[in-house]
């Protein structure tokens, strides 16, 4: 009779072992997904820099056209510098440092360039048709003429 009076009640909760198993499974999943997420974020930031570069070149072309003065865009490693060229009435084709006014300077984290100078005349037209840049492991060619047409 004594034994029938006591009922064994099942515990309704998680044991510490079950909780640790669930946490370890979640941590394993996070460890597998996190590198993919970081890589995706880096690619998005690199693409954002690329779009910023193309917008800067377009803006420099408009600047040259509006002001009626040439603009030089110097590309060097991971830097871009844009200079407004003050018109001078000398016969020399070279622009001296006194005729240049720095209007923009940018540092890029994901883009790198060969040493190159894009000269935009007073009509906003570039002296070269394209240039190359590196975006991570990719080498891209930007067609300046097509970029400025859009």
TrEMBL record:
Lineage: Bacteria, Pseudomonadati, Pseudomonadota, Gammaproteobacteria, Alteromonadales
InterPro entries, sorted: N_methyl_site, Pilin-like
Transmembrane segments: 16-38
Name this polypeptide is given: Prepilin-type N-terminal cleavage/methylation domain-containing protein
SUPFAM superfamilies attached to this UniProt entry: Pili subunits
Keyword Metal-binding belongs to the record: no
Natural source organism: Colwellia chukchiensis
Keywords: Membrane, Transmembrane, Transmembrane helix
């Amino acid at each position: 009779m004594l034994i029938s009076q006591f009922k064994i009640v099942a515990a309704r909760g998680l044991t510490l072992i079950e909780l640790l198993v669930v946490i370890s499974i979640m941590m394993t999943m996070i460890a597998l997904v996190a590198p993919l997420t970081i890589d995706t974020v880096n690619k998005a930031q690199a693409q954002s820099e690329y779009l910023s570069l193309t917008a800067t070149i377009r803006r420099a072309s408009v600047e040259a056209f509006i002001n009626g003065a040439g603009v030089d865009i110097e590309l060097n490693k991971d830097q871009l510098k844009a200079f407004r060229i003050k018109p001078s009435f000398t016969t020399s084709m070279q622009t001296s440092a006194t005729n240049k006014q720095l209007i923009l300077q940018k540092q890029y984290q994901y883009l790198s360039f060969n040493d190159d100078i894009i000269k935009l005349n007073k009509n906003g037209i570039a002296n070269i048709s394209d240039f190359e840049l590196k975006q991570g492991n990719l080498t891209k060619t930007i067609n300046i003429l097509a970029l400025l047409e859009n």
